[in-house]
Amino acid sequence: MQRAKAVLKEWLPPLVIAVVLSLLIQTFVAQAVKVPSGSMLPNIRINDRLIVLKLKAFTEYKHGDIVVFNHAAEGRDEVRYVKRLIGLPGDTIEVKDGALYRNGQKADEPYLTVKMNYKFGPVTVPDNQYFFLGDNRNESYDAHLWPKPYVDASELVGKVVFRFYPFNRIGPL
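-> structure tokens emitted (173 positions)
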């Protein structure tokens, strides 16, 4: 009994500290997420594991960033999405002739492998809102299909910075 108390006294404080630190990091700094769908194919695959940087005070979002966010499209419960940031507040977005146009200019999207087979917009992204599309443009359930195509800044979880699984595809994103 004395030995058990000694072991508990030795190991309990470091375990408690480790659990608290882990919770703090996951809540405020970074989080691992598992990709649930093929909306980002071929760049991000189903079941890929990603690290999301959640430090909002130090995160400046820009066109082309891959972002994790929570969003409730009309008629659905809130879902966690992994999509590419296409439109910032004030941007005008349009899809025509198989390509994305941002503010009247054809956007350079080297990560796409297939032309879009739909038309969308033009729409202007409101203040404090963002516009997202999946890389698998013709198969992705994203802003071009949502009744309310914008994601509020408060719904953003963070920017994807790294893929850590599968091991043969580890690297920054």
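The chain has one domain: 32-172.
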